[in-house]
Design a protein that fits this description.
28 strands, Nucleotidyltransferase, domain 5, globular, binds D-xylulose
Length: about 525
């Protein structure tokens, strides 16, 4: 490939959208990958007529959670207006996007025609009334499909068999199980649907003006796609719907696939250039992986938030029937990304800080400082809420001394260290089990501001820790993916993502593993596994 194929015209810009649970964001980058422009729509505040709380509707049964897809349409109208008011959009050569994963948008027969016939003299909201087979879209927070998950696992030969085929065991929020529920309870909706879109492919459809295909990466979050073959898995489809399901889902495409041009209605109404392309949209976690440029196997990010999320790239995935997810990589189509979520993240760190460090992060940091790595062999498990990595219903604090005997209490400083070590050891162990051997590590999220936690992460993972990733990594990743897809189209063949994004701002090294840490954790690891088994 010639250098020229990657050269980006001087005034070129690329747009990344992120339709998350609470709002819709846009980030425009220039050809040097510098953010130029941003805009946001907050669903509750900007579109109060849809009556959502934090972007969602919790139903009376306590487990059903939906959002109105027309709100997402209205948000895109508003976002484009805001962008256009800020500055002309005539430099944007390609758009891609990110969507909250797993949610489904049910489009009625005729929707693709209505999308194709959109006009520039009206908003989308005014024109798309009636395209939905169901006015509510089940989203990732929905937990109403336990029955369908059990049925899928029974039919396919167990949780591990479902994971081997699709990348994850059956999860309630995963789209296949949501479809199975609609198929069982709302056959009218199922039959009326011409297309069942993901949030990502639906948003892409609004831009391209046609029912857009689902990309391999977000498609991996459905329990319906054969992860290795990158095709719908007939056995999973048969368990979740009938023989029409494959057609309703439409084709699957690589994440750098160009769907086509931006619909002329948007070109005319908002002043995008006529040649602006739309690349396939993907899920928010895949787009964050793109935003952090985790391309090479072993590249990993740890997001420290209310829950802690670890994700990274691998070429050797080992899907687990117990925990975690394997998705196709959104930037390197041959490879995979793995993802683990631990529910007891900041929620638990704050509880331990309040209980054992006088409510002060400084005191918490001093506690980590005085107790050396390995905590003298003491190990604790801290569950404020039931855990999913590994699945553990029990809550509470479980402490063990250096001989593995349960003990009632540690010194307060030992609790602080035991908590952090246990959180990171657990992620390290479980990530390795699903195929991630980390070789580099970026820490993001609120707690990435805390140097003591960064040092502990470097020590436990035995890796240098980098920080300084820009906020909005999903929207930024979508913008990078727009540039990537555009560059592949222009080169006429696949261009590695790293070549296209080589000029992106670098990260800062925030902590190095201390030499004494590695032997301490090697010694702790085997004991950690055995004790974890006792707790779960
Ligand atoms: C991932 C998941 C959430 C959603 C919304 O499996 O359910 O992270 O993608 O952000």
């Amino acid at each position: 490939m010639s250098e020229d194929a990657c050269a980006v015209p001087e005034a070129a810009c690329f747009l990344g959208l992120d339709l998350s649970t609470q709002g819709l964001k846009a980030v425009v980058i220039n050809g040097r990958l510098e953010p130029q422009q941003q805009a946001v729509v907050n669903f509750d505040a900007d579109l109060p007529e849809f009556h959502t709380a934090s972007g969602v509707r919790q139903h009376a049964d306590g487990v059903t959670v939906t959002s109105p897809p027309m709100m997402w349409v209205a948000a895109l109208d508003l976002l484009f207006d805001r962008l256009r008011q800020q500055s002309p959009l005539d430099g944007i050569l390609a758009v891609s996007g990110s969507g909250q994963q797993h949610g489904s948008v049910w489009l009625r027969a005729g929707a693709s025609r209505v999308l194709r016939e959109m006009r520039s003299d009206q908003t989308m909201r005014a024109q798309l009334d009636g395209i939905f087979a169901m006015d509510e879209a089940p989203i990732w927070m929905d937990a109403s499909t336990g029955e369908q998950c059990a049925a899928l696992e029974r039919r396919l030969g167990g949780a591990q068999a479902v994971a081997d085929l699709t990348g994850s065991r059956a999860y309630e929020r995963f789209t296949g199980n949501q479809i199975a529920k609609i198929y069982a309870r709302r056959r009218d909706v199922y039959d009326a649907a011409e297309r069942i879109a993901l949030v990502s492919s639906f948003t892409a459809s609004l831009l391209s003006g046609d029912c857009a295909p689902i990309d391999f990466s977000d498609g991996s979050g459905m329990n319906l796609m054969d992860l290795r073959r990158r095709q719908w898995a007939p056995a999973a489809l048969a368990a979740c719907g009938d023989e029409t399901l494959a057609e309703k889902l439409g084709p699957l495409v690589p994440s750098h696939f160009i769907l086509g041009g931006l619909h002329p209605a948007h070109v005319q109404r908002y002043g995008f250039p006529a040649e602006c392309l739309v690349a396939a949209f993907s899920g928010d976690n895949p787009c964050s992986l793109a935003g952090l440029r985790l391309e090479q196997p072993g590249a990993m990010a740890l997001s420290l938030g209310t829950s802690d999320t670890l994700f990274g790239a691998t070429d050797d995935p080992r899907p687990s029937g117990a925990e975690g997810h394997v998705f196709v990589s959104p930037i390197c189509p041959e490879n995979y990304m793995v993802m683990l979520v631990r529910k007891n993240g900041s929620v638990m760190r704050e509880q331990v800080r309040d209980q054992f460090a006088g409510g002060s992060w400084d005191q918490f940091a001093r506690a980590l400082d005085v107790i050396p790595p390995g905590n003298g062999g003491r190990i604790g498990f801290y569950h404020a809420v039931p855990e999913i990595t590994p699945p553990t219903a029990r809550t509470g604090i479980f402490r063990f001394d250096a001989q593995g005997r349960p003990v009632e209490r540690f010194a307060p400083e030992e609790d602080c260290r035991a908590l952090v070590e246990s959180q990171f050891l657990s992620l390290r162990r479980h990530a390795a089990r699903i195929g991630l051997q980390p070789s580099s590590m970026v820490v993001t999220g609120g707690a990435s501001q805390n140097p003591a936690l960064l040092q502990a992460a470097a020590d436990v993972f035995n890796l240098p820790v980098y920080v300084g990733a820009q906020a909005d990594s999903a929207a930024l990743g979508a913008a990078y993916r727009a540039l990537h897809a555009w560059a592949c189209r222009r080169a006429g063949s696949f261009v590695p993502f790293g070549v296209v994004t080589a000029g992106a701002p670098g990260l800062a090294r925030a902590a190095l593993p201390r030499p004494e840490a590695s032997p301490a954790y090697e010694a702790l690891l085997a004991r950690y596994d055995a004790l974890e088994q006792r707790v779960v």
